[in-house]
Every structure is written in C-alpha cells, then in structure tokens.
Amino acid sequence: MITLEQCQAWDQADELAGLRQQFDLPEGTIYLDGNSLGALPRNALVRAQDVISREWGVDLINSWNKAGWWDLPTRLGDQLAPLVGAGEGEVVVTDTTSLNLFKVVANAVRIQQRRHPEKKIILAERDSFPTDLYMIQGFSEFLDQGYVLQLIDQPEDLEKAVTGDTAAVVLSHVNYRSGYLYDMQSVNELVHAQDALIIWDLCHSIGAVPMSLKESGADFAIGCTYKYLNGGPGSPAMLWAHPRHRADFWQPLSGWWGHARPFDMSTEYTADAGIRSFLCGTQPILSMSLVACGVDIFLQTDMQKIRRKSLALTDLFIQLVEQECSGQDLELVTPRDHKYRGSHVSFRHPQGYAAIQALIARGVIGDYREPEVMRFGVTPLYLGYRDIWHAVQHLKAVLHGREWDQEKFRVRGQVT
Amino acid sequence: MITLEQCQAWDQADELAGLRQQFDLPEGTIYLDGNSLGALPRNALVRAQDVISREWGVDLINSWNKAGWWDLPTRLGDQLAPLVGAGEGEVVVTDTTSLNLFKVVANAVRIQQRRHPEKKIILAERDSFPTDLYMIQGFSEFLDQGYVLQLIDQPEDLEKAVTGDTAAVVLSHVNYRSGYLYDMQSVNELVHAQDALIIWDLCHSIGAVPMSLKESGADFAIGCTYKYLNGGPGSPAMLWAHPRHRADFWQPLSGWWGHARPFDMSTEYTADAGIRSFLCGTQPILSMSLVACGVDIFLQTDMQKIRRKSLALTDLFIQLVEQECSGQDLELVTPRDHKYRGSHVSFRHPQGYAAIQALIARGVIGDYREPEVMRFGVTPLYLGYRDIWHAVQHLKAVLHGREWDQEKFRVRGQVT
C-alpha cells in the first residue's frame, strides 16, 4: 500500500522539487494538463514587459538588430537543441507545428521524387493528432502527383506497413491520446531499411522524454513549444532537419525570412543554405521571445533526471489508481512498459467526459480525448508525488460518488 | 514659406492630436517608421499582463473557451473589417502575410483551374515587397503545372499586361518603397474585364488609407497588422476573401483550426464553410491578443479623418523638403497626386543609406530601401505637424553638413 506519507517522503527526496518555484500555478489546483498547455514560468511576465516596453516601445525597429529579433528563430533553436539531441544550427523555432509538418513533408517528398520516384505512400497513424493527417491530405491534394496517405491502426502494424512503396513515414513520438512512446532508433532503422524517410512529430515528447534525433539517424522532426516546454499559448513551433539532407533542403513556403540574403531585396528567391531555409514570414516576436523562459528552466537540469521523475510519477499514478479505484471500470490505455511510455497517463472510462469535468470542478485539471479517454499529463518540473496522491483521491471521490452523473458535467463544450 | 509657427497652429487645430496620448513613444524621437513597425499602444502592456498572468497563468487551458482564444482570429478580423471595407465574418487574423498570400494565390489558381484552365500567368510587380514574389515562386514551383510569374515594371504597364492569359494579379495597394497607391476600384475592373482575379497586399495601406474591399469588388486581400495598425512586432497577419467566392474557398495549408468540426478529431479534413477555412495551426495567442490594442485606437476615429491628416502631413513633408533642402540632390519618388499617394514619402539621394543613419543618430527614425531610397512613414495617429517640421530641419542639417560622409554612418548593417 502506497500512503500519503510515502509520497511526502519522495517529495522531500526529489532533487527537482525546487524547480516548481519557477512557475506560477494557481492556488488549489493540481495541473495535469501541461501536455496541452504548459504552465506559466515566473520569468515570462518580466520578459514580456521588457520585450514590449523596451524592445518594441523604446528601441522600435532598431530591435531587429539590437535585440536580435532577426536571429531569434535560430537562437531559440540552438537553445532547445540539447533537449532533442540536435546540434547547433540544426533547429529553428518558427510558425506552427502544422505548417512545419507541411514543409518537412514537402522536403521529404522532394528528396524521394529524385531518389525513388516510384514511392508514393506517406504512412502515418490513424491515431495521429488529426492536424498531421489534415496537413498531409492538403499537401497531397495540392501536389496532385499521386501521393497517398496510408494509415496504420496501431504501432505493431508499422513493421509490415513500411514497404518499398513508402516514401515517408510521419509518426508521433508520443501518442497524444494513449501516451505510447515509439523507440525512435529502431523505427528509424526500420524505415530506412526500406529507403523511406522518417518525420517525427515531437509535440508530446519534447521536454518530456530524452531523445537523440541526430544520433538515432532521424530525418526530420517538428514539434510544439507550448506543451511540456511551457512557451505560452500557441508559441511558435520547432523544426529540425538532419544535416545530412542539407544539400537537399527545400520547402515551398519560401518567404523572405528563409532567403539567403533577404536585405538585397532581390526579386528572385534564393534559399538560405542551412536550417533558416525553413523560415518563411515575419514571426510573432512577443510570443516567440517567451519560448526562452520555459527552456531556461530545462537547462538547469537535464532530460535524464526529468525522465526518471516522469516515470516515477506516472508509475505512481497507475499504481495509486489501481490501489484506490479498483472496480471502477477504468481501463489503462497507456503502456506499462517504461520503454513505450511517454509522460502522460490515460484511462478509458465510459463516463470519461463527465468524470473529467467533475475532476476539473475539484481543481484537478486533466483533459478528455475522444473516445472515452481521460488524460493526465505529468510534468516533472512542477508536479510532485503528493500532487499525484491528491489527484487520485479526487478521482476516487468522483468515481465512488458517481459525480459524472450530474447534468452540469455532461454538457459537451469545446475541448482542446 | 511654411514656418514652425504655422505647423504649431495646425497641431492646435488637429482633431486627432489627442490620440498620440494613447501611444508610448520614446522621448526625443520623431518616429517616421510606423510603416515598418508601428509604435506601442499604451494599453498593450496591461493587455499582455492580463493574457500572461490571468488567461495563461490562472485559467490555463480553460482560456481556450473562457478567454475566447478559439475565436480570436475571427473576432479580431471582425474588429478590423471596417478599416478595410469588409463585412462581418469575412476577415481572419492568422499566420503571416507571406503564408496568407500563399493561401489566397492557391485559392485563386484553384478557381481559375476550373473556370479558365488555359490561364497560366500570375502577374505581379517587379517592385513588390520581395516576399510576395518569393511566395508566388515557391507556389508555382511546387504546383508544377506551368504557372508563370510575370512582372511589370511600373503601374502604367498594368493595363497592357493583364490579358486573357492572366489567371491572377497580385498587387501592393501601396508600394512599400515609392508609396504609390493604386486605385483599387479601377484595377479591380481592369483585371475582371480579362476574367482574372485580383489579390491585394495591404501591408502598406491597411490603417493608412481608406478602402472598400468588398464594394470595389476585389477578390482577395492579405496584409500585416504590425505596421500602421500597431499590433506589435510580427503580430499575425490578416486575410480577406470576397464572400462571392465562398463556395470555392480552398487552400492547401489545411490545419486543424480550419476544420469545420475540429473537436471531432476526425481523420478526414473537412474545411470550415467560411473564412475560418483559411486558418491552419495553433496561433501565437499573446502576440495575437495585442492586435486589438492597436485597432481599438482606430475605432475612436475613422479612416476618412486619418486620410485627411495623412495627406496634409505628407504634403507638408514634401513642401518643407522642397523649401528647406533645395539643391540637395533629392528626388521625390512618391506621387504628388493625392489619388496615387499612400502614407509615406520617399526621396532618392545618392547617399541615401548613410543619410538615413545620420538622421537616426539625430533621433529621426526613417528607413532606407535599396536603391538609394530614404523612406519616411507618416502615421497620423501619433505624428503632428511640428514633428514633420523638425524632421525636415534635421534632414536639412544632415545634407548641408554632409553628415553622410562620416564613416560610422556608411557601414552597412541589416535593415528591415
């Protein structure tokens, strides 16, 4: 039996516990949705005030050089590169995950058009975050050269699905709903064995699990900065491309920020020779500037320590649910095996939607994903063992008290 | 002879003079670059603090509904619609000007593929802001269906250049360098007479000159919110599409925010039936939220009053330069005719680059555009007649004193 006292002891021994002080979290809330929108780093407000009052208000256009707005996409990219196992000059922060996926799919297909024009399949998962599928659909329809999106139903189907016809594979490193974590290295090898290219969507893994994009031999990666990285609502996304593709870098959203010499004001587009070629238009400087505040906190520790605590917390969550909520029709969706688990835990429950609303009313913020999935994000930077204890106690109360029966919790609204 | 006293009298009679109090401008600066980056509205800092501390920090993911993040692109679009002569539900604020141009070019070409598949020319100006040309080049290369970008050298060439082969015409409503203003209505008619579609880039006209996008019969428009609209550095761009094209709305950057029912988490993309179909990925909420602060100030007056003052100030600038700086090798690039003048004034000078640096050192912030063009943006919301007087006195001193000869002003850096 795990007890509250035991959780308290773990908190006291937790070397990451002090990092919580660097976040502003509302009183009385246990925030288990950092995998949807990360919490507010305390230094974000000060940083925003400086960007607004000084960089914008006083220095005005001079800030393009003086405050380094011009280099912000690569500076932030270099700052977060260690979190994903990328090298310097290999990452940009820009635009949105959806747009960045469009760019790297276009690049991958362009490479394959030259190397293996007969390959026409873009492979992804039915259970991808839908926008990934939508962007591939938009891409294929627009290109109109017979590229077909093929979907697999579960990770186990991947091996058979990648064939000589596969041009590119787009996978979520961690599944947004189940929390399933792919073994990046072995997938890269599997995909490359068929001369296909692999694109990783890191939205639910960046800042949550360690990874070695470059060393593992991945081709492209995109991901968002506002979930585990705590960059702020809708903060610009990241994009990584393996430097071995450098000579083949290409993407069709060729705006001025990706130009080799943008201030020549030439009428001809000449792409930057490096990762900047994935930039397009002028970026939202204020939202982008705050990305640094979240990443700064990560750089005070390392991804291995974060991973250890993440696994300890998700293990604890699963064990406590099984200990406290047995017989409650909960089905664990997330893999038990550490090798295949990201940093959130999902349970299916027939009344999952209403149960999550009841939990939120109690100050435990999880979220809901169709169908019937209650999702609990575990962010080691600002969550402790007692938080997990109390969250499960609330879940127990909701389920035992059938709080999901209350009408007010059953009304469907927008979820994100 | 125009005197400082005369300028003072005009300031006293200026009904818009009070609006300057709603901006934070650095002391001792005359800011003539609001057409590159608009000044800071005083309420932006308070708004940012609220978005960060309350919407993000306290309400967290609940803000998607509670703070209306989800509807922000259309709410801001509706708010600025009156400034461009658009109706409710016709404008979104999202992404960047470059990306929005890609979307509307794709939509225009798609329409023409059905109506007039033989039309293969996209017409633009050699003197477009380069990113417009780059995006069209990227589009055409990617689509690979024989669409060709054809460039005209001057507005007078437009009439002959639009032919039965023209699919779409992309024009800057106000030229970023010369300040030339197209007569939107007559261009729309000229373009439509050849069954072509017209796309307006409003970057240098939105918030500067009145326009009637819908009534004049334009097809599409895109533009930025960080110049005359004062939305903040890199704040998201706007996009308008005439509702007569509604049944044909289409664009390939089909991310989840453009989906008809995004929370169904369907694997199939189904575009929203309206202007939201031009949305793509998750937007930078903080940068986007501040767009309202700039637009709020416009809504306290109207575009006709702003236009009258703008013309009075640009007239004054031209007259004072001719009165104070005669014989100084300055060539007016901007049209004298009000009908063809935007809200900035440009002069060519052989030492234009260094002269602008010398002016900036004196606290007069203009900017430089290749080749040899000194550009002075006139923003009626926060500039007065005395500002123009003093700016020209500084210009006179720079030119008479040959300050552009100083080495420190001749070093080329990045300009934006």
Task: Summarize the structure in short.
Two copies of one chain form a homodimer. Chain A has two domains: 4-31 and 302-409, Aspartate Aminotransferase, domain 1, CATH 3.90.1150.10; 48-298, Aspartate Aminotransferase, domain 2.
Strand order of the largest sheet of chain A: 4-10-9-8-7-5-6
| CATH class (first level) name of the largest domain in chain A | Alpha Beta
Number of strands of chain A: 15
Largest sheet of chain A: 7 strands, mixed
Molecular shape of chain A: globular
What would CATH call the architecture of the largest domain in chain A?
Answer: 3-Layer(aba) Sandwich
What's the CATH H-level superfamily name of the largest domain in chain A?
Answer: Type I PLP-dependent aspartate aminotransferase-like (Major domain)
- Number of domain units of chain A: 2
Helicity range of chain A: 25-40%
Strand portion of chain A: 5-15%
Low-confidence stretches of chain A: none
